[in-house]
Design brief:
single chain; 40% helix; 276 residues; alpha/beta
Length: 276
């Protein structure tokens, strides 16, 4: 166990306590990453909601157009009044995992150390009004803030039964096996990260930070970040699946297989031993 702890310190560079106090006390920009694939129907409403948050919170929105075949790119280009939007295109669809990684790398590359990066779904099922709350949690000392359906005040009752079953089953499995302190909702796609945490992780894993293509990428990212021993806090999320306008991109059987393979690979892989 001591060797693993030492490995975690080496992977993530200096221990968290050595970071400058300004990284916690100074409120920076919230870089919002939106992985988007064929979201022309939902994206306009989401951008409008984000623009409302931007009246009181400094936001930069990164739309990763993951090879959409509809008007997603055009919608993003039209944007919303008062909202700063940057579009990062994938010429072809590479999957959620690569879209998340592209967005993270783009946002971190442009961010200041005191900023945060927020990842949320582009289908308007996540409420951007939670972003100031996530920012508060990071300012208070957390490294990762997860919008959770499985804490008091959280709710996912608007989601289809098969999706609820998958999310809850995965939550029970990963919580029992991984015992990652402070985490109940491992598969939530709505999270905030401290920029300095992502920078250290990207410095070690590079393009391997996110290797899963599908929904399992959110679990994979947590598993790799845990070697940095981050402080993780969850805030209640009321999932608003009834606002979703496009077809679901989740494939139940494929996602279950991805979760099981990811868990097996994590159990068999040694902790990283050095910084790159």
């Amino acid at each position: 166990m001591a060797n693993q702890n030492m490995a975690a310190d080496e992977v993530c560079g200096a221990a968290k306590s050595s970071e400058p106090a300004a990284a916690v006390l100074t409120r920076g920009v919230a870089h919002v990453v939106l992985p988007a694939y064929n979201e022309e129907l939902s994206l306009p409403l989401l951008l409008t909601r984000l623009a409302a948050v931007a009246r009181t919170e400094h936001l930069v929105v990164w739309v990763v157009d993951d090879g959409s075949t509809d008007a997603t790119a055009e919608v993003a280009e039209r944007g919303a009044p008062g909202l700063e939007i940057k579009i990062v295109p994938h010429p072809v669809n590479l999957g959620l995992g690569q879209a998340v990684q592209t967005g993270l790398r783009a946002a971190v590359g442009a961010a200041a150390p005191e900023d945060i990066v927020v990842v949320m779904d582009a289908d308007d099922t996540h409420d951007p009004a939670l972003i100031p709350r996530l920012h508060d949690v990071i300012e208070a000392g957390a490294d990762v803030a997860i919008c959770s359906r499985f804490v008091p005040g959280g709710d996912d009752s608007t989601a289809p039964p098969f999706r609820r079953l998958l999310s809850r089953g995965a939550a029970v499995l990963f919580e029992r096996v991984l015992r990652l302190q402070g985490v109940h909702d491992f598969t939530s796609g709505f999270r905030a990260y401290r920029v300095t945490l992502l920078s250290r992780a990207l410095g070690h894993w590079g393009e391997r930070l996110v290797e899963e293509q599908g929904f399992a990428c959110m679990v994979e990212l947590l598993l790799k970040l845990r070697h940095c021993r981050p402080a993780i806090t969850e805030v209640a999320l009321v999932l608003q699946y009834d606002r979703k306008r496009g077809a679901s991109k989740l494939r139940l059987r494929r996602t279950i297989v991805q979760y099981l393979k990811l868990l097996a690979r994590d159990r068999l892989s040694p902790a990283p031993y050095r910084a790159l």
